[in-house]
Amino acid sequence: MWCSRAAVRQVALGLRGTQCAMATLPRVYVSRKVPPQGLDILRKSGQVQIELWDSDDPVPRQELLKKVKGCDGLLCVLTEKIDAELLDAAGPNLKVVSTMSVGFDHLSLDELKKRGIHVGYTPEVLTDAVAELTVALLLATSRRLIEATHEAKTGGWGTWRTLWLCGYELANSTVGILGLGRIGVAIAERLKPFKVKKFIYTDVAPRPELAEAIQAEYVSMDELARQSDFLAVCCALTPNTQGICNKNLFAKMKNTSIFINTSRGGVVNQEDLYAALSSGQIAGAGLDVTTPEPLPTNHPLFTLKNCVILPHIASASYTTRNAMSALAANNLLAGLRGDPMPKELQL
Ligand SMILES: O=C(O)C(=O)CO
């Protein structure tokens, strides 16, 4: 039964002629058309039978639940919820889940741990791309670039005016990082040449080994809010960070401050953010992530000139997305062989 269905997929994957030899290999479901490097690694390994959801759009949940049944491995992206329902549908063969993301809030870690399933993820390879985009978003927001191009295109550009489209500059500023990890450090390294005066950060505990590289001072959450001219959110979304950027935080920020989020939308209470932006409590916000994604086009945040919203593109460079797919593929293959994964999440 599998052989005949697989033959169709294998022809599509360029594996003609090897169908039946592969019937005993571990079965892997790839839940999205991943960039070519990762797919090539899987194809050329000769180690797995691959079934691919060959689309840029997410696999419908019911289809995913059907397709994972009996699989040994699953390569997924951040839009797939890997929870008890899915793991039950997959059944006891499932040994490895490899996500093509550094974030893992879409994975039920307790359920994975309970079942002894190994989990691979993709840290480090996306650090540069995310840091670069964060700087771009910060500048676009603080120097009002989106508003400015709109004005130029639509006739709002009259004469040169002294305070028209003025924003806030990085020189002599204090930049605060909420959640200091590799990405926070990479952002600070990129911002330093803009003559930032001081970097501060907060986290569950001081991280001197990381902070030293950027000479960042550890402060409380309240101090972070009070002192930051630019506040960049870089923490993972966990039950502890859910909604921590809320009215309490925004109320302590300066009315000249810029809030930037390239981590996960869930760390922000969007109603509170809307209130802070529309009342002038803070000066602006740049968001690469929202709740939900996509954010409906009629969402109130889209009505605000001082809110720049991007469609979750922080890691979207060709180099990085290929590297993420390659790492996800290598994690999957190593896990299925019983070898240490290049990047395994410790559950
Ligand atoms: O990897 C992630 O977690 C992302 O958000 C996309 O790069």
UniProtKB/TrEMBL annotation:
Q: What is the protein name given in its UniProt record? A: Uncharacterized protein
Q: Which domain of life is it from?
A: Eukaryota
